[in-house]
Specification:
It contains 8 helices and 14 strands. The chain is an alpha/beta fold.
Length: 334
C-alpha cells in the first residue's frame, strides 16, 4: 500500500519521489551548470506537485550524463557551486534531496559520489560508489564504506549506486547497519531492465528492507536510459513503478515503522537475523560462525575464483582505458 503515492500520508510514513530525469550530455562547465539548474528546478517541481513529499531522489549521472567524461573542467567538489546550489534548493523548498556528482579526486580517477541533503541544507549522508560498473566505468572505487543516516520522520536511510545493487552483500550491509530504506540510483539502459527488477525485489525481501530505486531516463542521442522508478516493500512485492517517461516524478509512501515491526516479529524468513543465527531451533542462539569461504578469503585478501585465470576482462582496456598501474589502498579516504 503506497498511500496513493503519498497523497494520504500516515503518521509513520515517509513520502519519497523518484525523479526519472531526462538524460543530459554536458561537456563544459557552462553545460554542467545548466544541468544543475535543471535539477534545482526539478526539486521545486517535486515540492509543488506533492506537498507531503519528504525526500526527492535524483538518479546517478543526473548532472554529468553517461559519457564517462573525466575532464577536470566538469568534475564537482563538495564545496563547489553545484553542490551549494543543490543545498540551497533543499532549503528553499523545505525538502530532503538525494543527488549524484562525479567528484574530483586529486589522487587518481574521479569518484562517483552520492549525497543526501536534509531540508536545512545539511549533508546527512556522503557515499562514494563502491562497485563502479567495470569494465565500462573509469571511477575510483569508493573508500568510505557504506554509511547509513537518520532520515525524515524517524527513518534510517542508506544509498547504493547502480551496480552496487547487483551485489547482495551491499544490501545486506545497508540493513546490517540499520537501514530501513535503501535508495538505489542508476543510469542503466534497457538491457538491464530484468536484472534491475529482480535485484530491487531481492534486496528488499532478503533484508526486510524497503527499496526505492530510479534510473536516468530518455536519450542523449547516443544512450537510452530506462527510467523504471521502483518502490519495493520489505516482503519483496513492488509497491509503485514508473516507466520510460523523462522527467516524471514517481512517488510512494514508505513505512519504516512496519519494517521495524517485521524485523522484530517475523519468524519465518527473517533472513537478516537468521543469517547470523543458523539453526537456532537446534542450538542455543544459533550457529554464529562464518561458514562461507568467499567471506573468509575476501577478508584475508586472497579472494580468488576457481576460474580466475580464465577471466577475459580484468581492466578497462576493451573500452579504451589504459591498464592501471596503481594499487588500491584500503582506508585511504581523501
Amino acid at each position: 500500500m503506497s498511500g496513493l503515492g503519498g497523497l494520504n500520508k500516515s503518521p509513520g510514513g515517509v513520502v519519497i519521489g523518484l525523479a526519472q530525469l531526462q538524460l543530459p550530455d554536458p561537456h563544459t562547465r557552462a553545460a554542467l551548470w545548466e544541468q544543475t539548474m535543471k535539477v534545482v528546478a526539478m526539486v521545486g517541481k517535486a515540492r509543488r506537485s506533492m506537498p507531503t513529499m519528504d525526500l526527492i531522489v535524483f538518479p546517478e549521472y543526473s548532472l554529468h550524463g553517461l559519457s564517462m567524461d573525466t575532464s577536470a573542467e566538469i568534475m564537482c567538489t563538495l564545496d563547489g557551486p553545484e553542490v551549494a546550489a543543490l543545498r540551497d534548493a533543499c532549503i528553499a523548498n523545505r525538502i530532503w534531496g538525494c543527488f549524484s556528482i562525479m567528484e574530483w579526486n586529486p589522487h587518481g580517477n574521479p569518484y562517483n559520489s552520492g549525497l543526501i541533503i536534509d531540508d536545512q541544507g545539511v549533508t546527512q549522508l556522503y557515499y562514494r560508489k563502491l562497485h563502479p560498473w567495470v569494465p565500462v566505468e573509469p571511477w575510483e572505487p569508493g573508500n568510505l564504506g557504506i554509511p547509513v543516516c537518520d532520515g525524515p520522520n524517524g527513518s534510517k536511510l542508506a544509498l547504493s549506486i547502480c551496480h552496487d545493487g547487483m551485489f547482495p552483500e551491499m544490501a545486506r550491509e545497508c540493513a546490517y547497519k540499520g537501514a530501513e530504506i535503501m535508495i538505489r540510483t542508476a543510469g542503466y539502459t534497457a538491457p538491464i531492465r530484468h536484472s534491475w527488477n529482480i535485484t530491487n525485489q531481492a534486496n528488499a525481501f532478503c533484508n526486510l528492507m524497503q527499496t526505492a530505486s530510479v534510473c536516468m531516463c530518455g536519450s542523449d542521442g547516443t544512450f537510452d536510459s530506462m527510467g523504471e522508478a521502483m518502490f519495493v516493500n520489505f516482503d519483496g512485492v513492488p509497491m509503485a513503478q514508473g516507466g520510460g517517461r523523462p522527467d516524471e516524478i514517481v512517488s510512494c509512501e514508505l513505512r519504516p515503522d512496519l519494517v521495524r515491526e517485521a524485523r522484530r516479529h517475523w519468524g519465518v524468513e527473517n533472513n537478516i537475523y537468521q543469517f547470523g543465527h543458523r539453526g537456532y531451533v537446534a542450538v542455543k542462539g544459533g550457529a554464529q560462525d562464518s561458514p562461507y569461504t568467499y567471506m573468509r578469503d575476501l577478508a584475508a585478501g586472497r579472494y580468488c575464483l576457481p576460474w580466475e585465470d580464465e577471466i577475459v576482462h580484468k581492466d578497462g582496456s576493451a573500452f579504451g582505458y589504459p591498464a592501471p598501474t596503481r594499487s588500491f589502498e584500503p582506508g585511504s579516504a581523501q
